[in-house]
Structure formats: structure tokens, C-alpha cells
């Protein structure tokens, strides 16, 4: 019974180690092109990735122009090719182990800040004990739990990046609206002053004419 409990603990701990699989989560500024590599150690692993264009380097610029992303496998074969995307989530099954390459291209004249997240999911211990009928149900439940926890973390990171982008967009729109209102007010005041000046000149000319 003691041996069974020990093996049970080992199974649970090994299952929880899934959360420590290689993860890349960064926020960077891109000028023209930036490339990153991520190591996948086993064939058949599931690679999850996402990116969000958070902001541009100027508060006066806002558009739906996105970035391009090309994903290549360790042998250089293209896996994904996204064009002009502000945000994207995707996944793929690794056919080869090694370094996978993610290259972003910015075609706009402005620097852009991008939030990029990559995670590799692998059930190494589960594979080794898949034939153990006593542990199969437990491992299956652990696998489902770990997958659910990871999906929550992945979605949370994605939503946080989307929220940051929307907050910056709203802030930029509010700033532009305030500046527009100030400019319109200044233009209105200037037009009123000019109108008063012209009216005074007109009255002065009429008075001069009537005196003659």
C-alpha cells in the first residue's frame, strides 16, 4: 500500500511538471523585422502561440495595419504564414524536433510593440505509463486537468494583451478627441476675434464716410 501511495505521488508530481514545459512570453518593439526561435524537444508535441500588436510609437497614429508572421520548422519548411494581422492565436503539431523559427515583419513606417507567447505541451510521463491499467484513469484525469489549467493561462495572457491594446487605443482616441476639441475651440475663438475686428473696421469706415 505504501509503494502504491509513493507511485501515486510520483504520478501526480510528474503530471504537474507539465506546467513547467518550455514557455516563451515576451513583449518587444519591432522596427522592420524580428525573429525568435523556440526549441521543441519531441516530435508530436503541440505548440501553442499567440501575438497581439499592442501599440504604435506615435499617439497620433492608429489604423488596422498589422504585422506579418512566418513560422518555419527546423528544416526551414513553412508552417504558417499570417499577413497584416493585429492579433492571432494558433497551434500546430511538431513533425520534427529542433528549433522552430518565428519571424515578424512590420511594413508600417512606425515602430510597433508586440506581445508574443509560445508554449509547448508534452506528456512525457504519461506516454511511459500509458500501458499501466491501474494508472491510466488517473493519468487521463491529470492530463485533462493540466490541459484545462494551461488553456486558462494561455487565454488569460491573450486577454491581458488584448485589454492592454484596447486601453491604449481608447487612450489615444481620447487624447486625439481632446486635442481636436481644443483645436476647434481655438479656431472658433480666432474666427470670432477676426469677425469682431472686421466689423469694427467696417463701422469705422461707415462713420468716416458719414462725417464727410
From TrEMBL:
Q: Where in the cell is it found?
A: Membrane
Give the bilayer topology. Answer: Single-pass type I membrane protein
Q: Which SMART domains match?
A: EMP24_GP25L
Q: Which PROSITE patterns match?
A: GOLD (PS50866)
Cross-referenced Pfam families: EMP24_GP25L
Signal peptide range equals 1-25
GO cellular component assignments: membrane
Q: What is its main location?
A: membrane
Q: Where is the GOLD domain?
A: 33-120
Q: Record's family? A: Belongs to the EMP24/GP25L family.
Q: What is this protein called?
A: Transmembrane emp24 domain-containing protein p24beta2
Taxonomic source organism: Elaeis guineensis var. tenera
Amino acid at each position: 500500500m505504501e509503494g502504491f501511495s509513493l507511485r501515486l505521488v510520483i504520478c501526480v508530481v510528474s503530471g504537474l511538471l507539465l506546467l513547467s514545459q518550455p514557455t516563451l512570453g515576451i513583449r518587444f518593439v519591432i522596427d522592420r523585422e524580428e525573429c525568435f526561435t523556440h526549441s521543441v524537444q519531441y516530435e508530436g508535441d503541440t505548440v501553442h502561440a499567440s501575438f497581439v500588436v499592442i501599440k504604435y510609437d506615435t499617439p497620433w497614429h492608429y489604423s488596422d495595419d498589422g504585422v506579418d508572421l512566418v513560422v518555419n520548422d527546423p528544416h526551414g519548411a513553412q508552417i504558417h504564414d499570417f499577413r497584416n494581422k493585429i492579433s492571432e492565436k494558433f497551434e500546430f503539431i511538431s513533425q520534427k524536433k529542433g528549433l522552430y523559427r518565428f519571424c515578424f515583419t512590420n511594413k508600417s513606417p512606425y515602430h510597433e510593440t508586440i506581445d508574443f507567447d509560445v508554449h509547448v505541451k508534452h506528456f512525457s510521463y504519461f506516454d511511459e505509463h500509458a500501458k499501466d491499467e491501474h494508472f491510466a484513469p488517473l493519468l487521463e484525469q491529470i492530463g485533462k486537468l493540466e490541459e484545462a489549467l494551461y488553456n486558462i493561462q494561455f487565454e488569460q495572457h491573450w486577454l491581458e494583451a488584448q485589454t492592454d491594446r484596447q486601453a491604449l487605443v481608447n487612450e489615444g482616441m481620447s487624447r486625439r478627441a481632446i486635442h481636436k476639441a481644443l483645436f476647434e475651440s481655438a479656431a472658433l475663438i480666432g474666427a470670432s476675434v477676426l469677425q469682431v475686428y472686421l466689423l469694427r473696421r467696417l463701422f469705422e469706415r461707415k462713420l468716416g464716410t458719414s462725417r464727410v
